[in-house]
TrEMBL record:
Segments crossing the lipid bilayer: none
Pathway: Cofactor biosynthesis; ubiquinone biosynthesis
InterPro entries: FAD-bd (IPR002938), FAD/NAD-bd_sf (IPR036188), Ubi_Hdrlase_CS (IPR018168), UbiH/COQ6 (IPR010971), UbiH/COQ6_monooxygenase (IPR051205)
A Pfam family the protein falls into: FAD_binding_3
Cofactor needs: FAD
Protein name, UniProt field: Ubiquinone biosynthesis hydroxylase, UbiH/UbiF/VisC/COQ6 family
Annotated segments matching region Disordered: 1-58
Residue stretches making up the FAD-binding domain: 213-404
Keyword DNA-binding (UniProt): no
Family the entry assigns: Belongs to the UbiH/COQ6 family.
Organism: Chitinasiproducens palmae
Biological-process GO terms, alphabetical: ubiquinone biosynthetic process
Keyword Flavoprotein carried by entry: yes
Alphabetized Gene3D superfamilies for the sequence: FAD/NAD(P)-binding domain
Length: 453
């Protein structure tokens, strides 16, 4: 019988070898593998069939679930930054989170979620090469800050006097997340699934297994809970959570102002423990965060943007000029939340899943991004004989974060308690204390250094 000759391979045709558990993305002939951790630009790579929602040959032929170094549960700014940081370090990462909506289009279309990013947050986003991708025309620098007590106390902070370029950047959450989404889309070892996790077996003697609501099972050396204050991941670990409601609601909205804000953030401590903060956005716009008693907050929101603007003008006493609301007011409940541990077997918590503080200092998201940086650093220092969920690595991460989280929690909660007391004696003491601190330049520089992270 004559011998049959196999047909020739067509020129330019992709050749893909299907691997077993943990196999990487397909290799493309004639292309250099992407430089994941270096300064090269992001490159897009086609995900395997299971990551695109289908089931490939391997998924049908083996019972082993897809394996990852880490699975990040939860999107948002902190979750996406975690997935990006670990992926850029060369880890195979799955992100379980719904895809966000694009940022609002138009000059006066704003996201009501606005953050004051400290230099530590900026440094992390620059390290991940995300900062240059954020729309610079929507970033507002904070060069000065004025804090007024509920009587005669006053504090002023200056970037110039503190020898820094700016105290913070005011940025919309949607703009930051859009830059993160773009970066995540170009990482070949990052697989983004929108399914929800419904079961977690975090085995200390083997990889954790996550079951998704479509029946898919994922295997991971480490599961990162970045799923917010009511964290599902944290609940699966059985950790203890202590929560205390502040009985306040954070009212947020954005305004156009007729007077220039001069890149100055202003904050007023009001009667009854309420706190009003106005943050300078890019251009002639201000972002409001009003920590108000819940019943008062409901009235502020229901009154609409025009009445809210008039109430702010009354409190600000001419600093803002005439305000015009450009985003409808919204509210969110305020609470203090502490967890007994940041880690569990094969699990690490970051962001609001690990801590929740009062927004009076605008440090919540900065605290979460410092969690991300610390976790990435702990995993980068992994010894070759450990995997990424090794208890020793997780304990290193937890130890590195305890002091920072504890100090910020104590400071924000302490200030809230101090200004919530109605006793005349305490009112005089706290306002005198503000004035004394304001007269001490070295103490003010130390306070700024702590806030900058």
């Amino acid at each position: 019988m004559p011998r049959r000759t196999p047909p020739p391979i067509e020129a330019g045709r992709e050749i893909q070898e299907t691997g077993g558990e943990g196999s990487g993305p397909p290799r493309h002939a004639g292309r250099r593998p992407p430089d994941i951790a270096g300064p090269a630009p992001f490159r897009r790579s086609r995900a395997p069939p299971w990551a695109r929602g289908g089931r490939g040959y391997n998924a049908r032929m083996t019972s082993s679930p897809p394996s990852f170094h880490a699975v990040v549960v939860g999107g948002g700014l902190v979750g996406k930054t975690t997935a990006l940081a670990l992926s850029q370090a060369g880890l195979r990462v799955a992100l379980l989170a719904p895809r966000g909506a694009p940022p609002p289009a138009g000059a006066e279309q704003f996201d009501s979620r606005v953050y004051a990013l400290a230099p530590s947050a900026q440094a992390l986003l620059e390290r991940l090469r995300v900062w240059p991708a954020i729309d610079g025309q929507r970033l507002g620098p904070v060069l000065d800050m004025q804090v007024r007590g509920d009587a005669f106390g006053e504090l002023r902070f200056s970037a110039f006097q503190s020898a820094v370029a700016q105290l913070a950047w005011i940025a919309e959450s949607a703009r930051i997340e859009a830059a993160l989404d773009m970066a995540l889309g170009f990482l070949p070892q990052l697989f983004w699934r929108e399914q929800r996790a419904v079961a977690l077996d975090n085995l200390s003697d083997g990889p954790a297994r996550l079951t998704l609501d479509d029946g898919t099972t994922l295997s991971a050396e480490l599961v990162v809970g970045a799923d917010g204050a009511h964290s599902w991941v944290r609940a699966q670990t059985g950790g203890t959570v202590k929560r205390r409601e502040y009985e306040q609601t954070g009212v947020v909205a954005n305004f156009h102002t007729s007077e220039p804000h001069r890149e100055t953030a202003r904050q007023w401590f009001l009667d009854g423990g309420e706190i009003l903060a106005l943050l300078p956005m890019a251009g002639d716009y201000l972002s409001l965060v009003w920590s108000a008693r819940t019943e008062h907050a409901e009235k502020l929101i229901q009154g609409g943007g025009e009445r809210l603007g008039a109430e702010i003008e009354r409190v600000a006493r001419g600093f803002t000029g005439t305000l015009r609301c450009v985003t409808p007011p919204r509210g969110f409940p305020l609470a203090l939340q502490k967890v007994d541990r940041l880690i569990a077997p094969r699990v690490a918590l970051v962001g609001d899943a690990a801590h929740l503080i009062h927004p009076l200092a605008g440090q919540g998201v900065n605290l979460g991004l410092r969690d991300v940086a610390a976790l990435a650093d702990a995993l980068a220092a992994k010894e070759p004989f450990r995997d990424h969920g090794d208890p020793v690595l997780l304990r290193r991460y937890e130890r590195s974060r305890r002091e920072d989280i504890g100090a910020m929690t104590l400071a924000t909660d302490g200030l809230h308690r101090l200004f919530s007391e109605r006793l005349p004696f305490l009112r005089a003491v706290r306002n005198a204390g503000m004035s004394i601190v304001g007269a001490q330049p070295f103490l003010k520089r130390w306070l700024v250094a702590q806030a900058l992270g």
